[in-house]
Amino acid sequence: MPQLDVSDLTRKAERLRALHHESRILVLPNIWDAGGARMLEWLGYPAVATASWAVAHSLGYDDRQTITLDAMVDVVGRVAQAVRVPVTADMEWGYAEQPEDVAANMRRVLRAGAVGINLEDSIREGEVLFPVEFQCARIRAVREMARQEGIPFFINARTDVFCPVVPGTEAEKFDEAVRRAKAYLDAGGDCFYPILLGDLAPLKRLREAIQAPINVLAPTSHATLRELEDAGISRVSLGPALMWAALTTMRSIAVDLQNYGSFDAFTRDMITMDEVRAYIRREPMAELSG
């Protein structure tokens, strides 16, 4: 494994943690490559997050951990090396089940340059929901790994209790989410990610119950960024939505050209090469012409 720059990674991890405790909500348009990461940094985003689905798709894999750990860590490392801001990586359910194996895998992620992760509490989005204590053991193992490395690694503890395949009423799922949130935070989690919970009222109740940072998935949110911020939500992720938007545009252009569509339809407002070169070279936006 490569030698760690403990000082640099500590600074980035502390910055990532601080961003979850500021008055302004942390918005993360999850990306899948180094170029996209460099663009977001250039636009002023204070941190960069990867999306597991998007990374997998970009390499020809389906989601749900069908991509190999080696391939995922390689992309995470490329993203982390491309930017100076903190990087947090979506690592699904850890590419293993047992706590010691998850910790070993997340050590690779940390050594690749990421200072935070998402860690799910189920296999294949609720198909197999881990018992609370087992997931806590997995979180504690990652926290201990980070302690050994001397880095305050950021753990975004995701729960899949709101996934449709998980049985229970809305009230039962909410109570279970509160129980899991408190347990995961006690085990060493830094933020709670109740994926698919998007209604503002239960999000407010959850925030009041756990008094800790909460991550919301933007595509399933029924509230605006302002409303989420006012409710005390710390972080909003786009998940794979940025790639879905890109794929939608690609499909539209490709279909249009099959029907002899106009080139002007997609070149009119296209990003310029000067802009691309500017963020790749880290040139200030003020230096752009036209």
Structure overview:
The radius of gyration is 19 Å and the shape is globular. The termini are far apart. It has helices at residues 6-19, 34-42, 52-58, 69-82, 99-111, 132-149, 170-187, 200-210, 225-230, 241-258, 264-267, 273-280; strands at residues 26-28, 48-49, 87-90, 116-119, 122-123, 128-129, 154-159, 191-194, 215-217, 235-237. With 290 residues, the protein is an alpha/beta fold. The strands form three sheets. The chain has a five-stranded parallel β-sheet with strand order 2-3-4-7-8. Strands 1-10-9 form a three-stranded parallel β-sheet, with no helix packed on it. Helix content is 48%, strand content 11%. The longest helix has 18 residues, at 132-149. Strand 9 (215-217), helix 9 (225-230) and strand 10 form a beta-alpha-beta unit. It is built from twelve helices and ten strands. It has a single domain (6-249), classed as Alpha-Beta Barrel (TIM Barrel), CATH 3.20.20.
